[in-house]
Amino acid sequence: MEYLLNLGILFCIYSILALSLNMVVGMSGLLTLAQAAFYGIGAYATALGMTKLGLGFFTTIALGMLINAAIAYAVGKILSRFQGDYYCIVSAGLSIIVFSMLLNWKSLTNGPLGVFGIDKPNLAGYSFYSNTSFLILCFVFLLAIYGIYYIIDRSSFGRCLKALREDEQLARVMSYNTKHFKSIIFVLSAALSGVAGALFATYIAFIDPSTFQLKEGIFLFTIIIVGGLSSAWGSIVGAVILISLPEVLRFLGLPYETAAQLQQLIYGAMLVLMMSLRPQGLFGKYRM
Amino acid sequence: MKKLLLTTIILAALAAAYLVVSTKQSERRDFADSTKPTIKIGTIFPLTGNMAHVGKSLQGAVQVAVFDANNNPENKYYYELVCEDSTLNMAKSAAIASKLISIDNIDALISFSADIGNAVNPVAEANKTIHFAMSVDPNGASGRYNFINWTMPNSSTTKMMNVIKEKNFNNVAIVSFNQTGALANSEMLREKLNNAGIKNTLYKFNGDMRDFRTDIDKINSTGADLYVLRLFEPQMSIFIKQLREKNINAQITSVELFGLVEDKSSVEGLWYIDVAGENYDKLEDIRHHNKSKQDYALAMAYDDVMLLVDAFEKANTKEQAVEVLSKLKTYHGIAGTMTQNEEGIFDSEASFRIVGKGN
Questions:
Q1: Each residue's pLDDT tens digit, B136-164
Q2: Of B153, B298, B293, B161, which Cα lies nearest the Cα of B237?
Q3: What are the chain A neighbours of B4 within 8 Å (beta carbons)?
């Protein structure tokens, strides 16, 4: 049961990340690999806010979202000049810069030694110490972010984003300020990723920069591709599949001398299989 | 598309078949009576990815320890291993720890690396399960159920300082992997060098670095007469090879990590400061079992199991075993004598070693 609760928490955290990433990639067609950077900034804002400044969990979430929004706004100004592959490369650059800062800005982040002793969230005297209560908290955040996704998806703003995704030039001809739309969705997505970072920091109770590398951004990208672009359900199902598949493989009863390698092999083969059978992802509404 | 699918399936099947066939049956056999009550020990080592070579050799060491424990007829318990792959991922490791505890019903846990130890720590504490972290970060031992067994940086850097002073080195280049454990050691050594007034520079490299040639030129231009390498493999071997190519005659040494080098010819005859190690016959036994020349931290992994065995044999319940471990002041293992402090850290004295005859 404890194990399932732990997996449930991971599903929620990665679903939040996938939903926020799908807003940029799926809804708007902007290829970004910067999500791991915002995830990391959110996690560090909570970790440092709680351990160094003595702030409450919910205050640090807001702080992380604000920092992410500010950085995303500044970076978004540059990013919104790019399209397609170029956008992807610049966003990957951002991810590398943030990782390097987390690793090397020792006076602030404690560098590779990380931040230890992050407390579980506390609300009006109630501590989310048990895994059950923490899972409920994560689920509430997931529902809220799902709601935000749903509202945007059905709003005129969401339709503009989809227009931008289908043909940016045409959208511009129709007098839409595409740079402005790109910037807004990037800021919103970054801020929401900060929530996942805050939840992760308090769940693990220790963070170091190794979690927030570019490869984490690629993993998140894989989640939304497998689940399906431009689909809220796809983001959640993608997260569930990619988190649970390696866990399911642990129960195959393989000889433990080679179990880890065999599990990776099967995992890789299943991904190839899934993508061959459904290239648009399980719930995909849009294909790159 | 069909071709791609077919090729993938065939390749995956071939690789799987190779892995299964190449897994030879262990030469060792348990002679102990397996009807005895069982104590399960879970391990969370990196078995895939960049550090898989370390995880696999540590897994071999704990296997040998469990074989030895089960072949002791005086032991009242039968010991069983449940090995899981950490993939060096903190979030997954926390989930794996809870899987080992709640599904495999393990009685104790051993983890490797500072970040994984820190991630497993709260899970072990919440579930009242003994956890040994092979880590240099004291945070890994916080709480009643968490312990560390390692040669802490103070011991290895003090020993290194003694040798540096004895051999009159006066310009030290510390070349370090930018990671928790490696940097803890490197930065402490730097502090001691500064206190002793010995010129030094710390060069930090990320784990994916492979071409050190321009950096070697830069280090060489500072006139460094000793290179202290704190790199993992294959970076260590690559750095040494690229250094040799440039005919640089400065002395090369390491804190702990020459033990990771598989092809010992590149470090033959070099001295280094290793983690504690005393029973080299047993280490050779483990290396033979692993069919590998690596001996990094093998003594620690073996002793972790033996510390657990010792505690469980003296106790009737898990709580009593924690009590036994907490009260243990010193323990003599194959790493030598280790002393436990109030934080739950079993610290041991570093050893001075010279790589010889490929060992």
A1: 888 889 999 999 998 888 888 999 999 99
A2: B293
A3: 272, 276
Residue of B80, B81, B139, B208 to mutate, testing the A interface (most A Cβ within 10 Å of its Cβ): B139
**Residue A18 · residue A220 · CB < 8 Å:** yes
CA-CA distance, A95 to A265, in Å (whole number)? 28
Q: Around Cβ B292, how many Cβ atoms within 10 Å?
A: 15
Q: How many angstroms separate the CA atoms of A8 and A224, rounded?
A: 18
Structure tokens at A30: 């902007």
pTM of model > 0.90: no
Q: Which residues of A touch B139 (CB under 8 A)?
A: 116-117, 206
Q: Is A85 on the interface with B (CB under 8 A)?
A: no
Q: Residue B9 has what pLDDT? A: 64
Q: What is the 3-state secondary structure (H, E, C) of A142-197?
A: HHHHHHHHHHHHHCHHHHHHHHHHHCHHHHHHCCCCHHHHHHHHHHHHHHHHHHHH
Amino acid identity at B340: Q
Please give the structure tokens belonging to residue B51: 């550090």
pLDDT tens-digit readout, B283-323? 888 888 888 878 888 989 999 999 999 999 999 888 999 99
Q: Are B66 and B133 in contact (CB under 8 A)?
A: no
Place of tokens 């033959």: B268
Please choose, from the candidates A6, A7, A77, A17, the residue with its C-alpha nearest in 3D space to the C-alpha of residue A43: A17
Residue B214: predicted pLDDT:
92
Q: How far apart are CA A179 and CA B289, in angstroms?
A: 62
The answer to whether the CB of A87 falls within 8 A of the CB of A179 is: no
| Sign of the alpha-carbon torsion through B122, B125, B126, B130 | positive
Instruction: Say if residue B13's pLDDT is above 70.
Output: no
Distance, CA of B359 to CA of B353 (rounded, Å) = 10
Question: Quick one: pLDDT at residue B27?
Answer: 45
Q: Taking 90 as the threshold, does the pLDDT of residue B6 lie above it?
A: no
Of the candidates B9, B127, B184, the beta carbon closest to that of A2 is on B127
Q: Is the pLDDT of residue A78 over 80?
A: yes
B46/A129 Cα distance (integer angstroms)? 28
Find, in chain B, the residue whose alpha carbon is nearest to that of A112. B180
Please tell me the distance from the alpha carbon of residue A212 to that of residue A210, in angstroms, as a whole number: 6
Q: Which two tokens stand for residue A26?
A: 């799926």
Distances (CA, A) of B240 to B163, B234, B247, B355: 21, 10, 11, 15
Is the pLDDT at A43 greater than 70? The verdict is yes
Helix or strand run (H / E) with residue B200: strand B199-205
Q: What average pLDDT does chain A have?
A: 89
Is the predicted pLDDT of residue A28 greater than 90, yes or no?
Answer: no
Residue B204 corresponds to which tokens in the numbers above?
A: 């930090």
CB contact under 8 A, B118 and A206: yes
DSSP structure class, residue A286: B
